[in-house]
Design a protein that fits this description.
The complex is a heterodimer of chains A (about 325) and B (about 500).
Chain A (H helix, E strand, L loop, with lengths): L2 H33 L5 H11 L3 H8 L4 H10 L7 H14 L6 H15 L3 H7 L2 H21 L4 H36 L5 H9 L3 H8 L5 H10 L7 H16 L9 H15 L2 H7 L1 H24 L6
Helix pairs in contact in A: 1-2, 1-4, 1-5, 1-8, 1-9, 1-10, 2-9, 4-7, 5-6, 6-8, 9-12, 9-13, 9-16, 13-14, 14-16
Chain B lengths: L26 E3 L2 E2 L4 H8 L3 H17 L3 E4 L6 E4 L2 E8 L1 H25 L4 H4 L5 H5 L21 E8 L6 E7 L6 H14 L1 H5 L9 H11 L10 E4 L8 H11 L2 E3 L4 E4 L2 E6 L2 E4 L2 E4 L3 H4 L15 H6 L4 E3 L16 H9 L6 E2 L3 E2 L3 H9 L4 E5 L8 E3 L5 H13 L4 E5 L5 E6 L4 E10 L1 E4 L4 E3 L4 E5 L13 E8 L5
Parallel strand pairs in B: 5-25, 7-15, 8-9, 8-13, 13-14
Antiparallel strand pairs in B: 1-2, 3-4, 6-7, 6-22, 10-11, 11-12, 16-19, 17-18, 17-19, 20-21, 21-24, 22-23, 24-25
Helix pairs in contact in B: 2-6, 3-12
The chains are: A mainly alpha (about 325), B alpha+beta (about 500).
């Protein structure tokens, strides 16, 4: 497989995942805030903007955040490189450069999603609220994965798609937990008794609300939520699960068995996975959740770079 | 003879249809469809506008979803557009096609012999059948190719030859040859697919020759060029990239043939061997179907500012380690001034009379022709010899004074760069006019695609019918607002 094609597959999947995750967080945050109208918006919209990594750009474009302009910014704004529309556009661009290598069904599905989302009118949608739009994005992402699994040979190319999704998801989940934990710890003392609405929102945004209750049979506790999203072995949106996926895909590509590694990406993945398998949530919290998650995110970036070095880039030798 | 004026009524979508002074491919006379068009006319004229509109929507959606678009450059940033598709097929009875096929075969063989001679012994120049100065001044003549043995001795494996019909007799003429990197064949295949989906019943009523073996035939020819004696040949299609107007076609053909679609940056030359960069290291490449122009192929050999090609590629080619299709330097054969000499080439190399006629052509660097051209600019088409795609043209009758004066200056400054031809009033085929929601006559040309393996010329039955969708327009290029039609070659006469 050409290196450029592997590179495009990897990014195609990353952008789709980023669009879906942004849609999930946006949708759930919006509706949680609706139920808590007495709270000043700024308090709650800030974290999601900094999570998207574009808080400064937002301030520059809009000033004070509110439900409408945050939605507009995260969903449609072409100047926001991680807006949902920009992610879908970039996913489609990547697909277009490799359309001879993906299935016709995948291309037509993604191309259709691009046109469908493009037909949403930002003005009307911001007035109506994000549910319809975000629902379409999430469904679009699910469908893309379904079509991919059903029509693309599960060869190296498929593995690169899998890595792109898993790595992006791991990072987004880490950022989500980090953001919630910080915004919860910090203003909690001034706001009074901690409410668990926001943690409920986090669970819902990753589709883990029902699973949480089945697992813990207890009220929502931040530590349990963090445990579920970071360390759960089976939940498909937990960090550990995503890293297990990444490891399996990397090993499939290099044909490496368990207990060893073929390149730096595999070594870093294995290292992260060891911690995620054997660490306990209480220890993590005691040591500081923020630094733990920051470490993980740093590690994910390292994995991304190592994959690029191993498979995508060729050194120029004079 | 021009057909009598035709104006239809009582035929649904065809009400008010006027054939005008042009050769109409569907109607021979007032309200009488030619026999090979009778069933299509019957079916379409019995269709309600709303029903037809629905089918059109279906077809458009299908093109949109598949992303079958091309890029236009004149708006400064390159915009993706749908290539408009007209649902009324262009139909050719078998005898007409057989004649075209013979004529094209003859032409392709002669053009290849010409190129082989030109880059070899140059007998034709020594025999003074064609002025050497004309050849050496061709922009696409490549000195680098002189004396080089090319694989199988073939220069142009893939040609697209544009044909038009005389408005009085309906006779087919060659308008121009495209022997560098002709595009459009993907539309032939996609148009057919969409047509069979949209109008299965109309399709079933005819015996239409299939077109879908083009990719496998092309793939077979590319395989024969491989310099590698044993093992599976590694074949790639080299594209300038996603921003090229024909990118859809590049990826379509690569997919259909099951070969890698590569960009220049995916390839590297090491020790006069071409490799592609894969996730498992460098892999040797044997044959390149290149859709990058000569100028940009190799910055060490041709234009040094090119980032689209592969530095060192020509060295590997010269060493016989990689094959290229088409061969560099073929552009000399589709230079619009050389075009005027193709009948001479056919007689010289094949000792035959040309089967297909060419359009009368004035070469501006011949003094006698030049004075005629300058005196008749408002009646002529002036073309720049090295351009294609409808760029760099003057349509005398529709041009204003300032455009004509501009071309007069350009011609005088650089006479070798221009030729002039009388206006060819193209034939017309009924096409749907969205504004009036009726059928109207629109001008068409035909570009058949010819593949040559050194022994045999294989031509996809039909080819791409391009249609000028603007009322009265004679310019069919997609970059200038043209569309296309499915082209049916019938197994019989009707």
């Amino acid at each position: 497989m050409l290196s450029r094609i592997a590179d495009s597959l990897f990014w195609l999947a990353r952008y789709i995942e980023r669009a879906e995750d942004t849609a999930r967080i946006l949708d759930v945050t919006f509706h949680t805030l609706l139920e808590q109208a007495q709270q000043p918006y700024g308090l709650r919209w800030d974290p999601i903007l900094s999570m998207a990594g574009e808080a400064a750009l937002f301030r520059q474009l809009y000033g004070e955040p509110n439900a409408h302009n945050v939605f507009e910014f995260l969903a449609f704004n072409p100047n926001n490189p991680s807006s949902i529309m920009q992610c879908v556009t970039k996913a489609r661009e990547n697909a277009r450069t490799i359309r001879d290598r993906i299935s016709r069904e995948m291309w037509e599905d993604l191309n259709g999603l691009y046109f469908t989302l493009g037909n949403f009118n930002p003005k009307e949608e911001t007035a109506a609220g994000p549910h319809r739009f975000c629902g379409r994005v999430i469904f679009g992402s699910h469908r893309f994965h379904g079509v991919t699994d059903a029509t693309l040979p599960h060869d190296e190319g498929w593995e690169f798609l899998r890595i792109g999704s898993a790595l992006e998801r791991a990072e987004m989940t880490a950022r989500l937990v980090d953001m919630q934990y910080r915004s919860f710890i910090e203003p909690a003392s001034s706001v009074g008794p901690p409410d668990n609405h926001q943690w409920m929102a986090v669970l819902k945004s990753v589709g883990a609300y029902e699973a949480y209750h089945r697992q813990y049979h207890s009220p929502i506790e931040p530590a349990r939520v963090a445990e579920m999203l970071i360390l759960h072995a089976q939940h498909p949106r937990s960090i550990r699960f995503s890293m297990t996926e990444t490891q399996a895909a990397l090993r499939a590509i290099s044909n490496t068995g368990p207990g060893s590694y073929a390149n730096e990406a595999e070594r870093l993945t294995g290292k992260a996975l060891e911690r995620l398998r054997y660490d306990r949530i209480d220890d993590i919290l005691r040591g500081g959740l923020h630094s733990y998650l920051s470490d993980l995110i740093h590690n994910f970036n390292g994995i991304g770079e190592a994959i690029a070095r191993a498979y995508f880039h060729y050194e120029v030798v004079a | 003879m021009a057909t009598a004026p035709i104006c239809l009524s009582g035929h649904g979508l065809f009400d008010g249809y006027a054939a005008g002074p042009f050769y109409d491919e569907m109607f021979a006379s007032e309200g009488r469809a030619r026999s090979h068009y009778a069933r299509v006319f019957g079916r379409f004229s019995n269709m309600a506008a709303a029903q037809f509109g629905e089918r059109r929507k279906l077809a458009d959606l299908s093109f949109l979803l598949q992303g079958i678009t091309f890029t236009v450059y004149n708006d400064g940033r390159g915009t993706e557009r749908l290539f408009p598709f007209d649902l009324v097929p262009r139909i050719l009875p078998h005898s007409e096609w057989a004649h075209i096929e013979r004529g094209l075969t003859q032409r392709v063989v002669a053009l290849n012999l010409f190129l082989r001679d030109l880059y070899g012994g140059q007998l034709i120049l020594k025999d003074r059948k064609i002025p050497a100065s004309l050849v050496y001044s061709c922009r696409h003549f490549r000195r680098e190719m002189i004396g080089l043995e090319v694989p199988q001795g073939i220069y142009t494996h893939i040609c697209g030859i544009d044909l038009v019909r005389d408005s009085a007799t309906g006779e087919f003429f060659v308008l121009e040859d495209n022997v560098r990197t002709p595009s459009g064949v993907s539309y032939v295949l996609e148009n057919r697919l969409v047509m069979t989906r949209t109008f299965p019943e109309a399709f079933q009523e005819h015996e239409v020759l299939p077109v879908n073996n083009y990719p496998s035939e092309l793939s077979r020819i590319l395989r024969t060029l491989s310099p590698r004696a044993e093992g599976e040949a590694q074949i790639v299609l080299l594209t300038p990239g996603i921003h090229n107007s024909a990118y859809f076609e590049h990826s379509f053909l690569a997919q259909q043939m099951g070969i890698e679609l590569v960009e220049g940056r995916d390839l590297v030359v090491d020790g006069v061997v071409v490799y592609m960069k894969t996730i498992n290291g460098l892999k040797r490449v044997d044959v390149i179907y290149r859709r990058v122009d000569d100028d940009f192929l190799d910055s060490l050999c041709f234009r040094s500012d090119s980032a689209l090609g592969v530095p060192g590629l020509m060295g590997a080619y010269r060493a016989g380690n990689v094959a290229l299709a088409n061969t560099p330097g073929t552009g000399v054969a589709d230079d619009k001034a050389i075009y005027a000499y193709v009948p001479t080439l056919i007689r010289y190399y094949l000792n035959e009379d040309p089967i297909l006629r060419t359009v009368e052509t004035y070469l501006c660097d011949r003094r006698d022709h030049l004075s005629h051209v300058l005196a008749h600019l408002p009646e002529l088409v002036v073309k720049s010899v090295g351009e294609s795609g409808g760029y760099g043209m003057l349509m005398g009758p529709s041009a204003d004074r300032s455009q004509i004066e501009l071309f007069r200056e350009r011609i005088l400054a650089e006479p070798r760069n221009y030729i002039a031809q009388p206006i060819v009033p193209l034939s017309q085929v009924p096409s749907y006019d969205a504004a009036s929601e009726r059928m109207a006559g629109r001008h068409v040309d035909l570009r058949p695609y010819c593949l040559f393996d050194g022994q045999k010329v294989t031509i996809v039955p039909g080819g791409l019918t391009r249609v000028a969708l603007q009322p009265g327009s004679l310019v069919v290029n997609s970059s200038q607002g043209g569309g296309s039609k499915d082209t049916w070659v019938l197994r019989g006469e009707c």
